[in-house]
Structure formats: structure tokens, C-alpha cells
Amino acid sequence: MRIKEIALKKVLSKEMVMFLSLSIVSIFAPFFGAQAVTGPLVNATLFLAVIFLGVKGAVLIALFPSIIALAVGFLPFIMAPFVPFIITGNIILVLVFNYFHKNFWKGIILASFFKFLFLLVSAYAMSHFLLSGKLANQITTIMSWPQFATALVGGVIAYFVLQVFQLIKRDVGF
Fold first, then answer.
1. I want to staple 40 with a disulfide (CB 3.0 to 4.6 A). Which of 21, 72, 82, 154 is the partner?
2. In what helix (H) or strand (E) does residue 47 lie, and over which residues does it extend?
3. What pLDDT, on the 0 to 100 scale, is given for residue 132?
4. Which of 99, 96, 103 is CA-nearest to residue 151?
């Protein structure tokens, strides 16, 4: 019985370390400010969270980046009504990737696409409902193709991180 307890503690410790590590990345990613850096980091974190932690851990991590970005002022206040949609887009990314992650690249592409599609439709509806003219178009643009691109780049980053983990696992036995 003692061996099972030790094994369980070891597994829980690895999961806790992974959860904390991925959470820290997702929390501090908005501090980079630029969507071209923050987006891929957050998306890579979410893809990795699905693989290492499962859906529940990944969904929990999906809540952090947008809330932190808004709280510290990196996300313009005008974007506040969009935060629930951004969080939902991240959760869609997690759920779709989880469903297809056995085929990694198919999962990355489909998850990225469905996140992009949801955010595009949501941003178009919300921005044209709440805003008008040039500002509505700018927000719709921010929430459109850059979301797809940053999600795909996040998938590439996640792939390389996984390759490094495979090497470490093989060489060190992590």
C-alpha cells in the first residue's frame, strides 16, 4: 500500500509542477504586450495543458490570460466586453484540440480555425453592436485572422516543446 501512495504523490507532484509552470506562462504572457508574442505563448500553453493536464486543467488555465491582461491594463478597456468571448475562444481551442489531439497537426489546425471562427463572428456582432465605424473595424480585425495565425504559431511552439520533453524523458526519465 505504501508504494501506491508514493507513486500517487509522484504523479500528483508532476501534475502540480506542470500546472503551475503552464499557469505562470499564461499569466505572464500578457506582460509582453504585443499580440504577436502573447498570442502564440498563450495558445502554446493551452495546447500543452491539454496534453499534460487534460481538459480540466487546460480550461482552468484558459481563464487566466485575458483576465490578467485586462486587470493590469495590457488589454484596452474598450476590449473589456470581449473578455468573455476571448476566454470562450480559448476554451473552444482546448476542447477541439482535446478531441483531435491524437492527430496533433489536425488538432492544431481545427482548434485554431474554430477559435478564429468563433472570435471573428463574436467580434463582428459585438463590435458592430457596441461600437461603430473605424473602431468596430479595428476590433474585428484584431479578433480575426491574427487569432488564427497566433494559434497556429502556438501549435508549432507546442510541438517543439513536446519534442524537447520527449528528449528529456528519454534521456533523464522524467
1. 154
2. helix 35-62
3. 67
4. 96
Using CA atoms, how far residue 123 sits from 2, 35, 62, 115, in Å, is 54, 16, 19, 12
CATH of the domain at 157: 1.10.1760.20
Within 13 Å and on the Cβ side, how many CA atoms surround 79?
21
CA–CA gap between residue 74 and residue 54 (Å, rounded): 29
The boundaries of the domain holding residue 19 are: 2-172
* pLDDT per residue as tens digits for the range 23-82: 898 888 887 777 788 889 999 999 999 999 999 999 999 998 888 888 887 777 777 888
How many domains are there within the chain? 1
Query: Sign (positive/negative) of CA torsion 102, 106, 110, 113?
Result: positive
pLDDT reported for residue 79: 77
Phi, psi dihedral angles at 163 (to 5 degrees): -65, -40
d(CA 152, CA 6): 39
Query: Of all residues in the chain, what percent are helix, strand and coil, respectively (each to 5)?
Result: 90, 0, 10
User: Residue 114 corresponds to which cell in the numbers above?
Assistant: 474554430
Instruction: Concatenate the DSSP letters of all residues of 107-140 into one string.
Output: HHHHHHHHHHHHHHHHHHHHHHHH--HHHHHHHH
